[in-house]
């Protein structure tokens, strides 16, 4: 199993990697799956828009794009996240950047687990799972507020 973090966005690095790996692993195990190879790639709005256009035929900015490679039991994939869009969303939703980044990270994991957000009912379900995951993160805090 391996959860890796790669930054293509200048000056951005993930901290608390061990804790994030543990938190993500627990989210996957709680849903009856096993984590395999998962890569988080942090990039710019423009780069993520190019991926969105090239692979999904969508010509707009987004905060996260997920490509799954796992099987029925093992979760594998690449999760591309726009650091810029997360910054914008944190301001829009009145939350801290770190919390918004964790929300987007778990959103990508939920997509790898097979959850979708194509309609209001699916979006509502995913939002609830994101909130539950964030509550678990907060329960484990010991003064570390980084991402």
Q: Fraction of residues in helices?
A: 40-55%
Q: In the CATH scheme, what's the topology name?
A: Collagenase (Catalytic Domain)
> How many discrete structural domains?
1
End-to-end C-alpha gap: 21 Å
Tally of contiguous helical segments: 5
Beta-strand percent range: 15-25%
Note poorly predicted spans: none
Please state how the strands of the largest beta sheet are arranged side by side: 1-2-4-3
- Give the integer mean of the pLDDT values: 93
Main beta sheet strand tally, sense and closure: 4 strands, mixed
Secondary-structure element order, as H and E? EHEHEEHHH
Number of strands: 4
CATH top level class name: Alpha Beta
Structural class: alpha/beta
Reported CATH architecture: 3-Layer(aba) Sandwich
**Rg from alpha-carbon coordinates:** 14 Å
CATH superfamily: Metalloproteases ("zincins"), catalytic domain
Give the overall silhouette: globular
